[in-house]
Structure prediction request, 230 residues.
Amino acid sequence: MMSRILIIEDEEAIADLEKDYLELSEFEVEIENAGDTGLARALAEDFDLVILDLMLPGIDGFEVCRRIRKTKDIPVLMVSAKKEDIDKIRGLGLGADDYITKPFSPSELVARVKAHMSRYNRLVGSQTQANDVVEIRGIRIDKTARRVMINGEEKNFTTKEFDLLTFLAEHPNHVFTKEELFREIWDMDSIGDIATVTVHIKKIREKIEFDTAKPQYIETIWGVGYRFKV
Ligand code: CA
Prediction:
């Protein structure tokens, strides 16, 4: 998918020039010529980066940047004609990601945009690759790290205990027979039998239950098997 850029700039010649160069680099570009309309679009639509002029009719660039930052973490590249403004932007801590002074070469702008875009995409990408976690009533199973927290306290599980707990927790309220659990967790070549399941359930309960005589999580369904209660 093409990355979308919003240019908020009141000088049309500059906005058009920026747009032309960015489009040559395969970006999709939209232009708004005033602070208020630019801000409205930046908040309402999904842009991957905003190029923001400082002196704008309506709301100025300082305020636009501040308001975008309240809800969005997309890169904001601020543009100003005055070197002093850049110092002011830095001083105010508006959360702008970069500053560029006019006049600038279009290729410099494109280079900066690409750098911010790839940095942002890496950041967003790393967030979407977050650990695979199952959470149920105080039990937090991090499948990626293979760690289990019980009410905020980490407990150690053997490989099979971890696999069995995770399998049950991922199928809440489903009753499994011991045979089904044995087949699911232990491969066919395993030495052992379905009594192994009972032993493992007991060990897991000792780690996760407050009172093993009255299990709150893994329930025994007499004559059938076990289920993870939600
Ligand atoms: Ca301006």
